[in-house]
Structures are given as C-alpha cells and as structure tokens.
Design brief:
It is an enzyme of class 4 (lyase). By secondary structure, this protein is α/β, with parallel strands linked by helices. It has 14 helices and eleven strands. Strand 4, helix 7 and strand 5 form a beta-alpha-beta unit.
Length: about 400
C-alpha cells in the first residue's frame, strides 16, 4: 500500500477519511489497527537523548501511539489544528473552558446548555473568579449587547440539550471575534460530520465521544478540538492537569470512528421517520427535531448543518405522572436512562424549568427525549403504540 499524503487525504470523501484517518499499518507490523499502548515510562536510548528530551513520545501523560491516532483522526474530521482526548465529555467541557478563561473573566453560557456544564460554571469556575451570565439561545448577533469589557468566552450548544433550540453560531462567532472573544461549542449532537465546527467560526469544539464515537454505550470519552489560535492554549491546559483518557477507551473510540458516518446516517433516517410518526400522533403536542420542516430552528439547521442525528424531544398533551408511568414502565424496547448515541433506543422524561435562569421553559405537557437506535422501526413504533394506549387508558 502506498501512503496517503496530506494532499491526497484532503481530496477524499468523509467516509474514506474515517476509514484511513490516524492509521498507519506500516508502523504496526502491517496490522490494520493501531493497538492499545499501555504505558507510563518511555525509554530514551542515550544520555544525550534524555538530556534533550529527544524522541517522538516522552511519557504516558504526553501521549501514546493509540492516543495520537485518535487525536490525529479527530482533528482531520473536525478540520482542527489539534485535538486532546479526555476521560469523559464533561471533562472535555471543563478543559475547553479552562483553556480560555482566567480569574476576573466573564463567560456567557447559553441557557440551553448541557446541565452539568452549568454546574461546572456555577460550582467550579465561580470559585476561581470567573463570572458566568446565561443568555437566551435565540440570540444571534445581538449577543453583542451582553458583552462586557472582560467577556472572554461564549459557550454555545446547538441544538440545546433536551430542548433543541438552534443557535446562529456563525452570527455569534462574528460578533465575538470582533472583540477577540473565544467561541466554544458543545457539538456532541451533530458531530463534525454534520456540523464542521471550525469552518463555522467555532474556536474550541467539545464532543462527548461517549455518544456517537462509541456508538455502543460502552465507554466514556471526550474530545476537545481547536483552531490554530486556540489549540496551543488547549494543549497547555491539558498538559498542566494531564487528565488522560484510558487506553482501552481510546482504542474503542478508534474502532467506533470507522463506522461513525454509517451509524449516524442510519440514526438520522430512523429518527426522522420516528419524529414524523410522532408528530401525527394525537397524544403529541409538539415535536422538537430541528431537521424536521415545521419544527423550531429548522431554517438554521438547513443553512448550517449537513445532517441530523438520532436524538430529539417531544412535548405530550397534558398527562399525569401516573399516566406517564403507565406508558413508560412497560415499554419493552425503549430503555429509560441517561446518555445516548448507542445502538439502542432510549427515552427520558425531562423538565428544564428546574434549572433555567433567563428563558422560560413552560411546555403544555410532559416532555420526553428520545434516542432512536438501530432496531427495526416497525418494532419501535409498535412498542410506543402500545405505550400510548396505556397512557390514554390511564388519563
Ligand atoms: C453526554 C454529554 C456530555 C458529557 O459526556 P459524558 O461523557 O457523559 O461526560 C456533554 N455534552 C453533551 C451535549 C452531552 O450530551
């Protein structure tokens, strides 16, 4: 096999790149995959080498061939100058924000952010002298009105966790960059396949690899990618703390990467069909799926996104907890639990009103978030159909 040059790689389609990125069989005795390197110590052959720290690898916390393989592949996919890997998505949020903030700074965070990210800002950053203001995710260029002289970063997440508001990222980035404010985005829903973050103005992008990179609900991983300006800051913060991802999890991430686009396309197709089916149900008040025409945020999705994933929410017509329990408790195929992105379908009840501070969350009935897995859609519909019958009977 002849090696691909960077120019060759740039010409390839995304599926081909996912197959080849971060992989060099000639360095692995011809084996297709980079194996799991476990290691702390790296040996230097001579006094002169160790004195001048000469060598491709220097110590376990600074990287291994396994870690480098996924970092390189993710940077290629995200169009980033560099990537670091963290042991969870939440750790990725933490490193991303720590990389661009210091004591005395002001941070803007979307009111629709992943709730543990809020807890990190309120519980950790506040302790270290960073002030957080939450903002309405509907703000585009108008976010400028909230900028203070010490605003250093804006955290965005689109669509919003649970509630699926779409943010105008290019407009926010343009306003922020006029003031040298760093734009951070949690891009877990779309992945770089469906929203290339850095090409849309994002400086530092976060991805919970726990979700679609894994695809199997079997590992925790986080990625932080950044552009030329911000990657040195990210790398420096990472090296100060050394929150290293485990070798097995990184290996599983590499394994998941090869099939990520195929899986995402299937989740997308299944979720869209399920969302349409739910939209036509009499028990459903509203579907929150930005890729569906008629859903809130569809215009932004159409303009900026290349696809949609398997996660969306619905608002039911008013129903008691008892009726909801009758529906959910006896589902046979949909599991009830947090996280998502695996092969299996999930449903979780949620209520954003308990933590929002600048926007109102007042749905007319209970809210459910679905992750649509890879099962046969007819089976999933039959499971929900029976659930809706139990809900109606208990109303
Ligand atoms: C799951 C998730 C995270 C955190 O990932 P963990 O690996 O579970 O810590 C961060 N952001 C979003 C949007 C998520 O859905």
């Amino acid at each position: 096999m002849k090696k691909l040059s960077p120019e060759d790689q740039a010409r390839l389609g995304s599926r081909t790149r996912l197959v080849h990125a971060g992989r060099d069989p000639s360095e692995q005795f011809g084996f297709v995959n980079t194996p799991i390197y476990r290691g702390s110590t790296v040996l230097y052959p001579t006094f002169d080498d160790i004195k001048h720290r000469r060598g491709r690898f220097s110590y376990g916390t600074k990287g291994t061939p396994t870690i480098e393989a996924l970092e390189t592949a993710w940077s290629d996919l995200a169009g980033a100058a560099g990537t670091v890997l963290l042991p969870s998505g939440l750790a990725a949020v933490a490193i991303a924000l720590q990389s661009c903030l210091k004591a005395g700074d002001h941070l803007l965070v979307t009111d629709s952010a992943y709730q543990p990210a809020r807890t990190f800002c309120n519980g950790f950053l506040a302790r270290y002298g960073v002030e957080t203001t939450y903002y309405d995710p509907a703000l585009g260029a108008d976010i400028e009105r909230l900028f203070k002289p010490n605003t250093a970063a804006v955290l965005t997440e689109s669509p919003g966790s649970q509630s699926f508001e779409m943010q105008d990222i290019p407009a926010i980035a343009e306003a922020a960059h006029r003031r040298d404010i760093c734009v951070v985005m949690d891009n877990t829903w779309a992945t770089p396949l469906f929203f290339p973050p850095h090409a849309r103005g994002v400086d530092i992008a976060i991805e919970a690899g726990t979700k679609y990179l894994s695809g199997g609900s079997d590992l925790l991983l986080g990625m932080v990618s950044a552009n030329e300006t911000w990657f040195p800051h990210v790398r420096r913060m990472f090296d100060l703390i050394a929150p290293c991802a485990g070798p097995e999890d990184v290996f599983l991430g590499l394994r998941g990467l090869r099939t990520m686009e195929l899986r995402l396309r299937e989740h997308e197709k299944q979720a869209l069909e399920m969302a349409r089916w739910l939209r036509d149900r009499p028990e459903v008040e509203q579907v929150l799926h930005p890729a569906l025409e008629t859903c809130p945020g569809h215009e932004i999705w159409k303009r900026d996104y290349l696809g949609s994933s398997g996660l969306f929410s619905i608002i039911l017509k008013p129903a008691s907890d008892r009726a909801l329990a009758a529906m959910l408790d006896d589902l046979q195929l949909f599991g009830m639990g947090f996280s998502w992105g695996g092969f299996e379908s999930l449903v979780v009840p949620f209520d954003c009103s308990s933590y929002r501070t600048v926007t109102q969350w007042r749905p007319s009935g209970p809210a459910l978030r679905f992750h649509i897995g890879l099962e046969n859609l007819d089976d999933l519909k039959a499971d929900l159909d029976a659930g809706f019958a139990r809900l109606r009977a208990a109303l």
